[in-house]
Amino acid sequence: MNVAKYIDHTLLKAVATTDEIKKLCSEAKEYGFYSVCVNSGNVELSKKELEGSDVKVCSVIGFPLGAMTKESKIFEAKDAVAKGAEEIDMVLNIGLLKSGENEKVYEEIKEIKEAIGDKVLKVIIETCYLTEDEKRTASELTVKAKADFIKTSTGFGNSGANFEDVKLMLDIAGDKAFVKAAGGVRDFETAKKYIEMGVMRLGTSSGIKILNGEKVGEGEY
């Protein structure tokens, strides 16, 4: 099992420097990660650094709160794609979801997917803030809106992926979407178990430690 090919090598902290983004891209090429996952302001640099490799550029949008207007998220997504992003990880509007405004949540996901066309859209539902019913609803709306992935977490909430949530998401996704587990993937065995469950992507800033069999400390994404 080539675990590296499931990993989005991630650096999303506010203080990430240009040199750190360059290092992220260099590591992604060296270890054969599927993509680098960066804030939209780092897409252009990442694309340049990864030129000539098969590592993709993934940009988060509406990150990390998801509380921006639909129009601002659409603009950010289109801009990131124009600058070289091949995948978009959006945070859905958690407040709207918890208010029962399901149609607005659905429309936002649908319109962002339409705006980026054939580029991959992953929807971060931020499971740590949701009830079981809300997790189910968020996953169902994501599939209905024809997004490509349901994703567990930003890594900035109070917890990340767990096996129970991932199983729920996989059951709802069925053959219509994929699942990305992010946040809390801290060792090789956990990564391997998620992949065996059917997860198609893992989001982590600790991919190198995971591949090297090292234990990742608490608090690391």
From the structure above, extract its key features:
221 residues, alpha/beta, TIM Barrel, eight-stranded parallel barrel, 9 helices, 8 strands, globular
Secondary structure topology:
Blueprint: E1 7-11, H1 18-31, E2 35-39, H2 43-49, E3 56-61, H3 70-82, E4 87-91, H4 94-98, H5 102-116, E5 120-124, H6 132-144, E6 149-151, H7 163-173, E7 178-182, H8 188-197, E8 201-204, H9 207-211
Parallel strand pairs: 1-2, 1-8, 2-3, 3-4, 4-5, 5-6, 6-7, 7-8
Helix pairs in contact: 3-5, 5-6, 6-7
Provide structural commentary:
The protein is built from 9 helices and 8 strands. It is an alpha/beta fold and 221 residues long. It has one domain: Aldolase class I (TIM Barrel, Alpha-Beta Barrel), CATH 3.20.20. Helix content is 42%, strand content 17%. An 8-stranded parallel β-barrel has the order 1-2-3-4-5-6-7-8, surrounded by 7 helices. The relative contact order is 0.14. The model has no long low-confidence stretch (mean pLDDT 96). Strand 1, helix 1 and strand 2 (35-39) form a beta-alpha-beta unit. It comes from Haliovirga abyssi. GO terms for molecular function: deoxyribose-phosphate aldolase activity. One of its GO terms (biological process) is 2-deoxyribose 1-phosphate catabolic process. Catalyzes a reversible aldol reaction between acetaldehyde and D-glyceraldehyde 3-phosphate to generate 2-deoxy-D-ribose 5-phosphate. InterPro entries: Aldolase_TIM, DeoC, DeoC/FbaB/LacD_aldolase, DeoC_typeI.
